[in-house]
Design goal:
Elements: H1 5-34, H2 38-78, E1 91-96, E2 101-103, E3 113-122, E4 132-142, E5 145-155, H3 157-161, E6 164-165, E7 172-178, E8 189-198, E9 204-212
Antiparallel strand pairs: 1-3, 2-3, 3-7, 4-5, 4-8, 6-7, 8-9
């Protein structure tokens, strides 16, 4: 396996520097201090250069080995590259399933909770089990009045995971949002917004829907 481009450049620069130091250092010290002939000095320099070349080759072999080990570690951690033509699913959105809507839980004919059946979906619109944090808000919208958050709940990852359901109603996450007991009687509808943050990627997807309340 070839060494990485950056490492190869480092090897070449280091080799050139070592050769230059060997040549000039040896020429300056040996000729000036020992009285040896230039032929003898050149022979010694060639021997030194041969040893240096072998050291560089051994170093390059070590670099290639380390590159191979690094690639193996990355594959062990990340897995092999996707198969050609494969489309790995990713979280792309949220949608409400059937039976979603306000309900009366205490029999007083006033809706006091919004029950939601939600499905995370991938980029092809297919149901996708996921892990993450879900925030749910109900906003009251009234004419000539600024929007007002009347209920807010966050499902942490462990709680959200426990909301998974499968059965006659299909595969979904069962989410509930309690409406305040003191909600004004003239609030006859709410818009519920859900924001899901995927645990593994940080991807955020949202969905919202308006519901009419029995008051």
């Amino acid at each position: 396996m070839p060494a990485s481009p950056v490492m190869s450049r480092c090897v070449r620069v280091a080799a050139a520097g070592l050769v230059a130091l060997t040549v000039f250092g040896a020429a300056g010290c040996r000729v000036g201090g020992s009285g040896k002939s230039f032929d003898n000095v050149n022979d010694e320099l060639r021997a030194d250069n041969l040893k240096l070349s072998r050291d560089i080759e051994a170093f390059e072999d070590r670099v290639r080995l380390l590159d191979a080990e690094l690639l193996t570690l990355r594959q062990d951690r990340q897995g092999a590259a996707p198969l050609p033509g494969a489309i790995p699913p990713v979280l792309a959105g949220l949608k409400f399933a059937r039976y979603t809507g306000p309900i009366d839980t205490d029999g007083d004919t006033v809706d006091d909770q919004v029950a939601m059946y939600i499905q995370p979906v991938d980029q092809l619109g297919r149901m996708r089990v996921t892990a993450g944090r879900l925030n749910v808000q109900a906003v009251a919208l009234k004419a000539d009045t600024p929007p007002r958050v009347v209920a807010d709940r966050t499902y942490e990852p462990r709680e959200f995971d426990g909301c998974w359901r499968t059965g006659l109603t299909g595969d979904h996450y069962s989410i509930v949002l309690d409406l305040p007991a003191d909600l004004a009687g003239d609030v006859t509808s709410v818009t519920v917004q859900l924001t899901l943050t995927e645990a593994g990627t940080g991807v955020m997807v949202e969905v919202q829907q308006s519901f009419t309340l029995r008051r």
